[in-house]
Amino acid sequence: MTLHDAPDLKSFLNLAELEDAARAQLAPTTLSYYDGGANDELTVQANRGSYARLALLPRVLVDISEIDLTTSLLGTPLKLPIGIAPSALHGLAHPDAECATARAAASLGSVMTLSTLSNSTIEQVGEAAPGSWWFQLYLYRDREVSRALVQRAEAAGASALVLTVDAAYLGRRERLKRLPMVVPDTLALPNIGGAHPHPLDYFVSLLDTTLSWKDLAWLRGLTRLPIILKGILTPEDAVLAAEHGCHVWVSNHGGRQLDTAVTAIEMLPEISAAVNRRCEIYLDGGVTRGTDVLKALALGADAVFLGRAALWGLAVAGEAGVAHTLQLLADELRLAMALCGKTCLAQLGPELVRSP
Ligand SMILES: Cc1cc2nc3c(=O)[nH]c(=O)nc-3n(C[C@H](O)[C@H](O)[C@H](O)COP(=O)(O)O)c2cc1C
Question: Quick check: is 1 in a domain?
Fold first, then answer.
């Protein structure tokens, strides 16, 4: 099979099989970027393993003939509690890039978070998936650059802003140092001013490393959109986020930033208890099964987001591949809920999960 021949998606029974197919197709330099975690990649491994250590406690003799996955995030109804996390450079996986990912999310009634470092423009994604996308941003030293991006995202119809707060410096991705990614000249990064031979180095040079809680007021004053802080890992910071009028995205950035950082799912119960429903809580990191989603929802997440898994689906079959990824997880989640005796998301609580 060549890179973008349409495969028979039904033959992929789970996300791991899609991942294997994507790995067989993608350039080694692209894999080095998509895969790479920080230092010894212990947090990358921990993310995946963290769900396996949690056991489910199913209840029986419940009418499970109808299972409802619908929810609402930030006041917008969704057909499933699974979204797409922001990841850079979808154009390395498929020529339709973020537009394909956004269309897939919209078609399933999900939501996609568009990375600042996208290959599709903000406006293209706004047209591709009206009402079904959020915009991820960083705050730059030159606030006018950030202001322009926020205004473009708002004008193009983003329904929320996701401010990434765990990446003022890039983690030490040794895999990427050994095998740098190759970004073809044809692949623009329109939100940071066009094509760059070393886009990550250039992008990092723009970031404001002095950023602190007081700077949120500037962002708040700029937009009426909900603001989500992505990269929260402690109850203390989650409470501060809520106190600053923001929502919380629990994440260790897919293990790409601080190696040996705690996993999101481990911290979720404490964060959920500390926040105590003052804001919404999302989670990402290592999600590959419907049971992973179920555990996160039971432990306090309002929704769960996919990073690399969406990229694998995109590489295999563009929009259809991402849609298949989401559909597989939704089907797995529906079955897992049924087998746990739960018929809607409101019934999911911590009593469903037993920790070691
Ligand atoms: C290739 C790649 C690029 C990423 N780019 C961004 C980004 O631009 N902004 C951001 O906030 N997070 C970025 N992330 C982190 C993801 O949003 C997410 O936190 C992480 O991938 C979740 O872990 P998972 O890949 O195990 O699902 C990126 C992740 C990957 C794998």
Answer: no
